[in-house]
Amino acid sequence: MTAGYADSSDDGGWTNRGRQARQVADAVESLVACWLAAAEEASPRLPARQLHALRTVRGRPELNLTALAEHLGVGLPTASRLCDRLEAAGLLERTAQPHSRREVRLVLTDYGHRVLADVAERGVRRLTPVFEAMTPAQCAALEHGLSAFHQARTATDSPASCRGPAAPDG
């Protein structure tokens, strides 16, 4: 038997890692539901993909349209239309890169920063009662586990590993 895996007689062949992944997936569904509810309370109401795009741009000041499309796992036309909508809403600006006037840089507006801060604060307010219902040991274990997950995912250097298929460009 390989470390971390159950033999075929244990639980119908499911590995320990498989059971852990299922438990995490169930917990993540609940967490995502809290986050999406918080996002829906914010004004303006933005789809999850637009919020993800805004967070991506905020975290990468030199990001261009091609890099955003790659990060989101969408085609360039889809990313361009997404940015069109965010720009029309006053959340994003396209500016020329300082080193290359032909390359467009994506930058959050002050309003875009405020919207993301509002969504984050609403998320904290939604999650706080959940954490209050947990013991300190459970909270510490969750924090440790999430940190380890983030480090392991980052180490694989493959954000696409947790992303579904790219949306069609049409």
UniProtKB/TrEMBL annotation:
InterPro entries: HTH_MarR-typ, MarR/SlyA-like, Tscrpt_reg_MarR-type_CS, WH-like_DNA-bd_sf, WH_DNA-bd_sf. The keyword Transcription regulation applies. Gene3D superfamilies: Winged helix-like DNA-binding domain superfamily/Winged helix DNA-binding domain (1.10.10.10). Residues 17-151 form the HTH marR-type domain. One of its GO terms (molecular function) is DNA binding. Keywords: DNA-binding, Transcription, Transcription regulation. PANTHER family: REGULATORY PROTEIN MARR, TRANSCRIPTIONAL REGULATOR, MARR FAMILY. This is DNA-binding MarR family transcriptional regulator. It comes from Streptomyces achromogenes.
